[in-house]
């Protein structure tokens, strides 16, 4: 008697196929989000390496995009750098302008200007590093030096008024404003790396030197604002 062959299990000899894990899909950025991401990446690289040493390839690699994406949004690293510098200058200018407009007392103006610059350095370290790395204060032209010149012009009017009140030669006010603002700017560059002592102490010593001079230095200077509890106005 012929035996009926058994039906074959179609899966009996089939190799085991493991399901591949599905790759997590990256969330697609809007054009605005991508632009801001490239600016953030560029800011960090320019602060770390400087403009000349940073390449489009590095920016694209750190942002996890292709080089054409960088060119599409900014036309190259020059475009990214220009936008970053413009934004940082705007932030710093705003902070310094607010500080200079808060009081008519020259000593408090110096105090507020010093604190404003140190506040900016503390909260926008990468931005300040970019400004001073590629446009140092000693340079005749450049973003940071131009900004410091604008601030000195504002301070000049305050000093001229104070000079007139004390019967000093008012024509010297522009020179003194450059000295004063330059001293604050260079101290800020030093504090960028040092970060010690704290910014309130640095500002107090800046005002001490600017206001009293070396011959009349106070051995333990304090900020006027910390003594009075405000930004007040009486001349010390």
Question: Overview of this structure, please?
Answer:
With 236 residues, the protein is an all-alpha fold. It folds into 2 domains: 29-75, Orthogonal Bundle (Arc Repressor Mutant, subunit A), CATH 1.10.10; 86-228, Tetracycline Repressor, domain 2 (Orthogonal Bundle), CATH 1.10.357. It has helices at residues 31-49, 56-63, 67-74, 77-100, 106-123, 125-134, 143-165, 173-194, 199-212, 224-228. Helix 4 packs across helix 6 (125-134) and helix 5 (106-123) runs antiparallel to helix 9. Mean pLDDT is 84; it is low at 136-141. Residues 32-92 form the HTH tetR-type domain. Residues 1-31 are annotated as: Disordered. Residues 19-31 have a biased composition (Basic residues).
> What structural class do helix, strand and pairing data support?
mainly alpha
Number of strands: 0
Q: What is the CATH topology of the largest domain? A: Tetracycline Repressor, domain 2
Q: Supply the number of helical segments.
A: 10
The helix content is 55-70%
Q: Stretches where pLDDT falls below 50 for ≥5 residues?
A: 136-141
Query: What is the average of the pLDDT values?
Result: 84
Rg calculated over all Cα atoms: 30 Å
Could you give the distance between the termini?
124 Å
The CATH top-level class label of the largest domain: Mainly Alpha
Q: Which architecture of the largest domain does the CATH hierarchy give at level 2?
A: Orthogonal Bundle
Q: What proportion strand?
A: under 5%
Largest sheet: none
Count of distinct structural domains: 2
Order of helices and strands: HHHHHHHHHH
- What is the 3D shape? elongated
């Amino acid at each position: 008697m012929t035996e009926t062959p058994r039906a074959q299990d179609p899966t009996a000899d089939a190799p085991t196929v493991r399901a591949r894990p599905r790759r997590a899909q990256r969330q697609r950025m809007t054009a605005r989000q991508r632009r801001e991401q490239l600016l953030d990446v560029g800011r960090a690289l320019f602060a770390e390496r400087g403009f000349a040493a940073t390449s489009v390839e590095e920016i694209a690699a750190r942002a996890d995009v292709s080089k054409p994406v960088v060119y599409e949004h900014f036309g190259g690293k020059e475009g990214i750098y220009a936008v970053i510098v413009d934004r940082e200058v705007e932030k710093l200018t705003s902070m310094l302008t607010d500080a200079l407009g808060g009081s008519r007392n020259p000593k408090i103006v110096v105090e507020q200007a010093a604190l404003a610059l140190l506040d900016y350095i503390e909260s926008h370290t990468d931005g300040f590093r970019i400004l001073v790395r590629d446009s140092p204060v000693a340079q005749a032209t450049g973003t940071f030096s131009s900004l410091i010149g604008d601030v000195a012009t504002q301070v000049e009017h305050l000093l001229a008024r104070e000079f007139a009140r004390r019967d000093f030669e008012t024509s010297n006010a522009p020179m003194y404003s450059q000295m004063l603002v330059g001293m604050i700017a260079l101290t800020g560059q030093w504090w960028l790396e040092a970060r010690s002592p704290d910014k309130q102490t640095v500002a107090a010593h800046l005002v001490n030197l600017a206001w009293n001079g070396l011959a009349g230095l106070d051995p333990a200077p304090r900020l006027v604002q910390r003594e009075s509890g405000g930004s007040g106005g009486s001349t010390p």
